[in-house]
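pipeline/complex-builder :: batch 7 item 3
reading input block
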Amino acid sequence: GQNIDQPTEMTATEGAIVQINCTYQTSGFNGLFWYQQHAGEAPTFLSYNVLDGLEEKGRFSSFLSRSKGYSYLLLKELQMKDSASYLCAVRGGGFKTIFGAGTRLFVKA
Amino acid sequence: ETGVTQTPRHLVMGMTNKKSLKCEQHLGHNAMYWYKQSAKKPLELMFVYNFKEQTENNSVPSRFSPECPNSSHLFLHLHTLQPEDSALYLCASSQDLSPPDETTDTQYFGPGTRLTVL
């Protein structure tokens, strides 16, 4: 079957670094997305990986290892506004995108 | 502003009511999607339309009926829903479904309709 696993909740301190992991098992692979979703709002696109390695965008970086079925989202210099849910999504065979349940990140002062 | 709007933002309905959710995208995209988001569960893909044609129906009960009159508009017609259908219904759009390229398949989401079925 197809499955995406990510931790349910994480807590980190303002100014720190946090890594949110995602493991997946899908039929085929055509890319992995990370989305941010604040409570009561729409998910917004953060990053996309299709090749192994690290993609960096400002304070956010995303890593992919296709052989391990593993990705992480790295958030640096955490700010209070980073408190949100982070959704890992994988586009599998047939280009259907499957979402994980999301990781709720709490940033404390 | 994501370029994808949804109305209404909140909806309360009884199990015998008929209502419709509306989604409109102003991004010139060709693919549109309906998702259901329940508390602590992954986003569940319901329907996908590409160039107005339905390409995916993810075993959704017939009490949910989608309609896509053109590439900019997507509706979800609701009839005789159950309390367990209460959820956030999200619409999304992307440029198209075909090539595995970041710029063409990134999905942009609307703000959602919070549906409560009594």
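note: The two ends of chain B are 32 Å apart (CA to CA).
queue -> next item
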